[in-house]
């Protein structure tokens, strides 16, 4: 959104106009990202929906991207702000490659950079309206962290954004373990995404799962989950709600 700021010119007594662009409110948004560590690296899942307000307007948006050689980034929230973050990271990795010193930025460095960016923009009252998940593997060590739109960050063995933080994290706390195989990790993520599909109106049944290991990043082709909608509680979901008719 563009708005005009009048600026008083003291010498000439004239008013100049300066234009600034800000994301005043998220318009096209993506919902939950769910990510876990497994024995060989990190797995991350995301659907491909983009909501214009409450309308599922776009159904082919990729919200997981490889960053450099060792990192994988996923984002919930405003899609245009995510694209801006990717431009920042392109510049960062290009500058890192130009040194040509045999070193490259790892996931911990990228996570720290994103934390500083999000906190800096928050302090300018011009936040990037995203919650970010950053996973990676470097020197045999898996890394997984999250950054909120105001710069709050942490590391964990499993993370989730949006509704996933409320609906998927309890499942992960019960069923995640450190020596998960790739197949078991995918099944666990699919279980979380199925619950979100049932309960989150912004979720769609078209998802991707990405993995990152020492060999690099692989993102699956989009696919759909098998669902079952004949549960009795789905037929009259407000039957036991207080104040329902």
UniProtKB/TrEMBL annotation:
InterPro entries: Ntn_hydrolases_N (IPR029055), Proteasome_alpha (IPR050115), Proteasome_beta4 (IPR016295), Proteasome_bsu_CS (IPR016050), Proteasome_sua/b (IPR001353), Proteasome_suB-type (IPR023333). Keywords: Cytoplasm, Nucleus, Proteasome. CDD domains: proteasome_beta_type_4. It is found in: Cytoplasm; Nucleus. Belongs to the peptidase T1B family. Non-catalytic component of the proteasome. Component of the 20S core complex of the 26S proteasome. The 26S proteasome is composed of a core protease (CP), known as the 20S proteasome, capped at one or both ends by the 19S regulatory particle (RP/PA700). The 20S proteasome core is composed of 28 subunits that are arranged in four stacked rings, resulting in a barrel-shaped structure. The two end rings are each formed by seven alpha subunits, and the two central rings are each formed by seven beta subunits. The catalytic chamber with the active sites is on the inside of the barrel. This is Proteasome subunit beta. It comes from Camelina sativa.
């Amino acid at each position: 959104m563009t708005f005009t700021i009048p600026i008083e010119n003291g010498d000439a007594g004239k008013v100049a106009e300066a234009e600034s662009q800000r994301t005043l409110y998220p318009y096209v948004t993506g919902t939950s990202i769910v990510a876990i560590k497994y024995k060989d690296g990190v797995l991350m899942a995301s659907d491909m929906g983009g909501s214009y307000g409450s309308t599922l307007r776009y159904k082919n948006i990729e919200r997981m991207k490889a960053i450099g050689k060792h990192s994988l980034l996923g984002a919930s929230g405003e899609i245009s702000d995510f694209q801006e973050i990717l431009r920042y990271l392109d510049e960062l990795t290009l500058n890192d490659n130009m040194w040509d010193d045999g070193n490259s930025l790892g996931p911990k460095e990228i996570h720290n950079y994103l934390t500083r960016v999000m906190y800096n923009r928050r302090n300018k009252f011009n936040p990037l309206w995203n919650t970010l998940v950053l996973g990676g593997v470097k020197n045999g060590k898996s890394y997984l962290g999250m950054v909120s739109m105001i710069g709050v960050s942490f590391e964990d063995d499993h993370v989730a954004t949006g509704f996933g933080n409320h609906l998927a994290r309890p499942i992960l706390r019960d069923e995640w373990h450190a020596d998960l195989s790739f197949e078991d990790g995918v099944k666990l993520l699919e279980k979380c995404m199925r619950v979100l599909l049932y309960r989150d109106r912004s979720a769609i049944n078209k998802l991707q799962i990405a993995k990152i290991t020492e060999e690099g990043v692989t993102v699956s082709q989009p696919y759909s989950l098998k669902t079952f909608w004949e549960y009795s509680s789905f037929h009259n979901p407000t039957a036991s709600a207080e104040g329902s008719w």
